[in-house]
Each structure stands twice: as structure tokens, then as C-alpha cells.
Amino acid sequence: MDIGIDPYLEWVKGEGVPVIEDFGVHLPEVATAPWPRYGVDGAAVHLKGRGDFVSMFVLDLPPGAASAPQRHLYEEVVYVLSGRGSTTIERGDGGTHSFEWGPRSLFALPLNSAYRHFNGSGSARARLASTTNLPAVLNMFHNEAFVFANPFRFDERLGEPNHFSGQGRFIPVRPGQHMWETNFIPDLGAIELKSWDERGKGSKNLMFILADGTMHAHLSEMQAGSYKKAHRHGPDFHVMCVRGEGYSLLWYEGDPDFRKVPWRYGTVFAPPDRMFHQHFNTGAHPARYLATAFGSLRYPFTESKRRALMSAGEGQGAVATSVKLGGDQIEFEDQSPRIHALYLEELAKNF
Ligand SMILES: [Fe+2]
Predict the structure, then answer these.
(1) Do the beta carbons of residue 123 and residue 59 sit within 8 Å?
(2) pLDDT tens figures, 277-303
(3) How much distance in Å is there from the Cα of 184 to the middle of ligand 1?
(4) Ligand 1 center to 6 CA (angstroms)
(5) How many angstroms is it from 277 CA to the middle of ligand 1?
(6) 93: CA distance to ligand 1 center in Å?
(7) How would DSSP label each residue in 211-234?
(8) pTM of full prediction above 0.85
């Protein structure tokens, strides 16, 4: 029967790469295999809560290797899990932008720009983990040539030339919504974040606008001995630990128990649609996680993202507005007492 077709999943099958499907995945341990399109090894990662629009890819660059030239009509936000190298992006006028990355770098591939990744080390592998909106784009057009061999140029997506060198533009909005517009962040472990105490004392964050894309990315920090407030929203926020250690609890309203996801560097999970989730730092240092999604503060794209990020509660978004006020955040005084008790138990294991 010729029904129920998912052109994205058909495409992945045709690529012949491993597909890892799970609730959460530890990206440094994902097994990869040759990916002819890229000329290096790779894998696709499909999280339970990835929603309709988003998927992840892992690429392995052997020492000294380069990926085959690519261009595509979907957005891609790349995180460097390990290794050092560079990426070259072609401009429409024939010039190029090159930038050097290392562990914890984050960058975007501007829409439909030709690019290549290079491993700059002669001895160490490099592993890249990217979040893409290819499912949305392939399921929209279901024509691979249109998506992978399209000559249209989006010159405006390249942004300022210095956006490839780690420079950017700070755009103040309000705590929790301050934005940094750039194409490249050298180290997510080092970039300065902004305070957001409403999410929990000592909490910090920063939103990124990368290559003026619709993909969302933000970085969040919680101090040692602390945790964030619980909240919920639609699917496809991919939460990945970039520093520290801890765990997250997830539950649907009315569930008798929590689902627990322990995380450390490189663990990623995506809270499924409307599932409450809460992040806990059990380490001795601040913990940071990156969240990527489709639909951002600048371009929410869906009503669900608009509500989550900006339109509920006095503009700060449902993710930061108490459920008692019509939002989707559970204040500390309203949370189940089991949550804090469990946190103390987990801390006791480490200290
Ligand atoms: Fe969330």
C-alpha cells in the first residue's frame, strides 16, 4: 500500500548509515559506519522526542581527513564533540570563510552554502554532532535533487564576515531571552552567559541566532548544588550536556513515577511533547547544556514554540511562567517533595 510514506526515513534508509533510536543517547559512544555522501563515517540519531522536524547526525573525521563537499536546503547546527579541525564555507561570490574549531565549538552551516569539514590533526579523530531540520524539509518537498542540488543562494544567511571568527552581536531582550547573533562559537564551555534567576538561583543562559536560521539553540548553566525548575513544552528540543554531570527527571502529568536520564559530557535526550522535565546538577562544578530545536525566539515557526519562548506570561514565554498563571513552569514551592529528596540522595552518592 502506497500510504504513510516518510520521505526523510526513506532517505536515511537509502543512505545506508546506522540509525540509533532511543529516549536518550550518549553521543561519544555512537557506532558509525561509512557514509558515502560525506566520504567519512557517520550515523543518524533519532530521539524519542525529536518531533516532526528534527534529527541528529554524527560524523567521524579520521586524522587528516576531509568530508566530501556538501550543500543542502536544510539547516544544520554543528557541535564539536571531540577533535580539532576547520570548516570552509563557500560564499556565492566564489570567496570562502574558514574557521577553526575544537572541542565544544558550535556553528551553523548557512542555508544551502557549500561546505567541507577538515580534521586538522594528524593523529586524533574528530567527532561532530549536528541537529538538522532535514525531516521537515524532505517531508515538505520529497525531492532529493531539490534539497541537495539546488543552486539558489541565500546570501543574507552568511551574516557579517566576522561572524565566522567568533565575533557576534549581543542583542539584549530580557533575562532568559538575551541573544548572541553569530555563526560560530569557539567554546560553549567558556562563553559568558547571562543570569536568569527566575529559572532557579544561579541559573544562567544565552540564546543563539546562528546564520539567521530558524533552528533554535541556547546554552544553559546551573551551579553546583542546584537544579532548575521543571517545565514542559512541545517536542524537538534536543538537550545535550556540554559540561558537568547530573540527571534529568521527566514525567507526564499524573504519572506515578519519574523517568530518570543520567547525563555527562555528550549525552543528549529530547523531552517528548508536553512531558515535564527538570535538570539537576550533581557535580562539583557548574553544569552546562545546549538545547537545539526547530523554531527559535526570532523565528518561532510554530504556535507551540511561540507560546513556549515568548507569548505566554508577560512575554517571557510559557517555559518561564508558572502553571498557576497559565504557563508551563512548576515553581519550587509547588513541586513534589519527592523531587528534592531524590536530589539529596543523588548528591550524597557524589559527596
Ligand atoms: Fe525544556
Answers:
(1) no
(2) 999 999 999 999 999 999 999 999 999
(3) 23
(4) 27
(5) 6
(6) 40
(7) TT-SEEEEEEEE-TT-BPPEE---
(8) yes
